[in-house]
Amino acid sequence: MFAERTLRSTSAGRRGRDRLVLILCAGAGAVALLPLVLVLFYLLFEGLKAWSPAFLVSPPGGITSKSGGAMNAILGTLEMTGLGLAIATPVGLAVALYVVEYREGRLAVIVRTAVDLVAGIPSIVIGLFVYSLVVITMGHFSGYAGAIALSLVMVPIIARTSEEMFKIVPRSMREGTMALAMPRWRAITAVYIPTVAAGIVTGIVLAVSRAVGETAPLLFTALGSNFVVTDMNQPMSALPLYMFQNALNIGFPAARERAWAAALTLVAIVLIFNILGRWLAGRTALQGR
Amino acid sequence: MTAETAPVRPESPGALIRRRNLSIGDPLLGWGVRLLSWLALAAILLMLVDTALHSAKLLQHESILDFLFGLSWEPASTIYGAVPFVYGTVVTSILALVLAVPLALGAALLVNEYLPTRVAAPIAYGIELLAAVPSVVYGFWGIVVLVPVLRSFEQAVSGSPAGGLPILSGPVPGPSYFVAGVILAVMILPIVTSVARDAIRATPRLQREGALALGATHWETIKHVVLPFARGGIFAGVILGLSRAIGETIAVLFVIGNQPQVNASIFAPGYSLPSVIAGEFAEANQPFHSEALIALGVVLFLISFAVNLAARRVVARFEQRAGGADVR
């Protein structure tokens, strides 16, 4: 305060420019938040009008029919995400262990690069891969193909987070297991994995939150179905697919309503998983330091 | 105290070694990890090769140059040219970057430089939540809410003197490259913002304080110290955003208008690489139609691969520099 008065103070022009940038940045922040506010507003406003608990458990109706729920889609999402996760968790963990703990020369680098490559592939291309390899080989669309596509979406996320986690296992802990002459498998299963379990779970939760919302990899693998199907060998619906198909028919008010209801359900599920994942991640970051 | 300590049971080194050798745990976990990793690698390679071979069947129908540089896409007369889609992908991605980067930078500066953490944290969280919303929801929201709003904007611009420019000319049907660019901008905003924030946060405190001590205003400090330092990281965020924009499928499909054409006006409807695959694959019943779409998928894969490679280079260089600065 004193210095500002006695020394020559900052000129009006410089101070004005400083103020201007602050205003511009505040504007940018407000505009950046605008879409979130708008999307959430429309979801709640339109979605709540169309949504009811019955939506979750009713079988689907025709495009124009007033009634009809998303039971097929919810079952499909549960089954395909579940199976996809059952594939992706062991594979993702194995890749992380292979890269960090086993580190077998060039092959580990190649495995890691391949998994990173998949992480960068647009999800529609993952759908094409699985179509070309699984759907054509099996001869038909199926829930299995959808689950494989979703597992490809999840493996890189799980592998990447677990890898980061295994890297932060403290050196003292590693040395401790060696001093105790622990076999490597004991060190990994009894010490390293429990130490970073929360971090690994974070990766799994974020992977699920990603996979649940994916439409593109399911388009030509699970295809979608208007029937309540539990057999994964059949074409299956999933919430994003269900929403996609209803949203393409927004000319029909009933389809439009179903699309909003599905959107609300989908965003609720994804946000719950996402917020849960972030919360877990925040906790592990504290523990890790 | 000492009485409670567990009794130490001495074991001869020989017994220890024998027990380790007997345990099947090590080979079990070791081979499990190896086999699963190799399986993943094999599956990825198999899928790449299989998809490439599948798309190569298109070569029985037309040459690779006709495909890559073909200006028209008419499945009904089995003419398959990739240019309209590559053009659409490039135009929408550029629009997305032009719209998203200044906003992301401004938001990152606001959150990191100007606001106290208590206010900044929820804003940053809100922007990051944008990334969690599934793309089908953006697409639907885009067609229901955004297209009507932006259409009147597009009409106003193309009706004004600026509409004389080819890139801003009418007619304005609604869905267009521009709307797709806006949706993509919303979708890539979180990643660009969060990477830019990391870069800005990494600016050494001493440099910043040095500038302030020399009498620089906050903006001058940002301009001469923070931004030059964070440039690499911000650029990395931009490339990551670009890579997202290139691959985005469903949201774009809803709002781009689905016309396989090359049109100079950003208000004209078009098509992009990922969205045409999603839009036409299910009804691909013309000869070589599905092969041509898979070949578009291969083109998309190669483009996103190149961008990701560039991104990784930039990120690596940035991390090196940031690491170097920490030591100083």
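qc> Residues 65-327 of chain B form a domain with the MetI-like fold fold (CATH 1.10.3720.10).
qc> done
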